[in-house]
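Hi all, long-time lurker, first post. I run a small reading group and we've been trying to get comfortable going from sequence to structure in the token notation. Rather than ask abstract questions, I figured I'd post a concrete chain and ask someone more experienced to write out its structure so we can walk through it together at our next meeting. Sequence below, copied exactly:
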Amino acid sequence: MNETTDIVKQFFGVVAREGTYLNIIYLLLAFPLGTAYFVFLVTGLTLGLSLPFWVGIPIMLLMLAAWWGLVVFERQLAIWLLHVDIPPISRETTSGQGVWEQLKAHLSNPLTWKGLVYLFARFPLGILSLVVVIPLIALTGGLVFAPLTYTDPESQMYIFSWQIDTLNEAVICSIVGLGVGLISMHVMNGLAFVSGRFTSLMLGGLQGTTDSSLTRGYEIRR
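-- Answer (accepted) --
Happy to help. Here is the structure in token form:
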């Protein structure tokens, strides 16, 4: 009996959990951020690789610093919104070394390249989030608010060939919409959970070297 009660509480309690709405915000941000990263990285890396080296090298160095900053931002965003426990990045400081040594250490750090892969992966993941989240929100909203729109022919809902044009039908739709909304929240929480695990896998707990300017703003375990 207690087990059944716990399951019921867990199912309906999703509405009252703050994490549910933070997860939805994270998923809604995934597409615009992923698109921005993709356009920025493709443009910058293409210019850096195609232009003469005296122009291309400075661009590539700027891109290296920029994508590292985006990696730090993405890691922190996942911690803030998804509340995921991302392992701290274990590093050795290179503050006493020259610029060339620091650059070599940064380029030899696996997180540098895993971070780049992660940023590119945010684009297809953002598309997936958009395809899942927007229809679920739209469907839930349309069903729940059917009693407010059933009298307007231009706003009436259609479920296949069934036209919602009476109050009784609209109320039934609204009740069904509440159930759809609960299920949708669990689906979106599941998608956010997978996103958080992917972020933790790609951006956490790797050994590398960098200078203090690259590690400012997130955890460092010495």
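A couple of things your group might point at:
Residues 167-203 form the longest helix (37 residues).
The beta strands are 89-93, 158-159, 162-163, 208-210, 220-221.
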